[in-house]
Amino acid sequence: MMESGRSNLETVASATLRRREFLYGLGASVGALAFQAMLQADEAESSSTKRPPLSGKSGHFPAKAKNCIFLMMEGGPSHIDTFDPKPKLKQLHLQEFVRNGEMKSAMESGKRYFVESPFHFQKAGQSGADISKNFEQLAECVDDICFYRGCQVDSVNHPTAMYQMNTGNRFGGDPAIGSWTTYGLGSANQNLPGFVVLPEVSYPQGGASNWSNGFLPAHYQGTPLRSRGAPILDLSPMKGVGRKHQRANLNLLEFLNTEHNDRHPQHVELSARMEAYELAFRMQMEVPGLLDLDNEGAVTLESYGIGREPTNAFGRKCLLARRLVEQGVRFVQLYAGTWDSHDYIERAHGNLIRQVDRPIAALLKDLKQRDLLESTLVVCCGEFGRSPDNGVRGGTAYGRDHNPHAMTIWLAGGGVKAGHTIGATDETGAEAVECVHHVRDLHVTILRLLGLDDNKLTYFHGGRYKQLSQFGGQAIEELLA
Fold it and tell me: From CA 79, how far away is CA 94, in angstroms rounded?
């Protein structure tokens, strides 16, 4: 009787499933087509489930760069005081800032006023690039650099601007550009993360969401390495636990997790966690040697400013970035800041330039000497530029406010037009006026140099295919060699 009842239930269930399949087959809507595309992608992925998720992949077209080092000057460096001199500000100094109409002394009105740069500029290299004289070492590298003055963003707030520069989305929650890169290309070293972040001791505004995988699988999130103490917490096993014992524990855990994963394939986070355990196990052998800079030699350490102040901390990051890309890490992001100089800009920017000048120049020279610059794209920028004016703060504590309409971004290596300055801002540096592009186009350009097409590098989420540029963009052809 029970067998007959079970048979009837199975028959009804089977008929119900066939009916649902039939009805679904009739639903040739956009949603159904998208769902079918997702199923096809899942099937393609499942056919290669044994491949590590960060295995190297071919791009959409031949790449100029294999790796990217992204130097993030958090806080918004002033283009007017670094790479985009504005002599007009000397004439307008302390005149009231108005976009139209008469200017008058701000010392009398107490309103906003123009501020001249406290720094002197020079024409450097054969290209005659404009650069503040405070950049004593970087001035030697300008012929390998492409300075771009036409980029604009949407936000004047640090967290939202940081999110937009790093992820394309002002409101966070989307994958970082390093995550998109490793999603598209994988990594050449399966014993290290494909996307490594070297933050300040205190994380930037917006926190770890600046290097999040967002809606991409967790394999593609950025891995921060701490600048002090253990680079990664809990990476090393407990005292007394050997490699064989640890391997046996991981094998047992993998067996149990695999069984659970087979029963609940919708829980995609579990497979990512399983891979993270394996990656951590492999990293135990690779990371300690990678982080040991002593075998670099005294000359190299000196060139990066390691072992002395104020260059030691950022010098270590730059040298480690070179070592990481040398070992096949796809995307490395370094943070230096904060450049948020609303007052005392001469002191604040002066100190920060001294911290990064020698390390960045050493990085470019080191990459070039090792024949790595041609295959490594180096990008340096903040989340926005700064204004030619500021409010009165004690009369002489001159600084600058946030400016999303003008900034200078420079790129080197990896197929960019070295020794050129592209774009321009107006006579006071308030707004880009030549070769003007939204930051989405900068993102598309970076992907292009890495061999990726932003329109094809997509991921289905929230009912549609999403991409780094949000809704599409164009490469800035003027930046390409």
Answer: 19
